[in-house]
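> example.struct
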């Protein structure tokens, strides 16, 4: 798919997609179109962008996401070697989820005390 379609499906800007490609998070193939060329993105790029967006919203840095992608793409690390990093990230996510639940309880408590007259 062309970059405009990838933008539409992911909600990212063209600059965002180009940035992800430039730093090696996603890849495209250069395809001819008459005298010009365009970048063609496959379903893997779509899947990776979904993972990137989710990872970022959960506190992963692009560097950490790239490290995971690189390790799995190149078979540099086994899951056993990647395990300590993933366990740490899982703990961070659990801690964050607990904080979110705590804030939700505070908000609900405050809303319960508000009376509309």
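> example.seq
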């Amino acid at each position: 798919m062309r970059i405009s379609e990838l933008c539409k499906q992911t909600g990212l800007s063209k600059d965002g997609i180009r940035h992800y490609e430039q730093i090696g998070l996603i890849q495209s193939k250069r395809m001819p179109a008459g005298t010009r060329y365009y970048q063609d993105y496959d379903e893997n790029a779509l899947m990776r962008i979904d993972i990137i967006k989710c990872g970022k919203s959960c506190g992963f840095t692009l560097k950490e996401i790239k490290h995971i992608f690189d390790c799995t793409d190149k078979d540099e690390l086994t899951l056993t070697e990647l395990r300590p990093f993933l366990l740490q990230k899982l703990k961070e996510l659990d801690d964050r989820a607990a904080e979110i639940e705590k804030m939700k309880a505070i908000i609900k408590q405050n809303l319960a005390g508000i009376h509309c007259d």
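> remarks
The first helix runs from residue 3 to 10.
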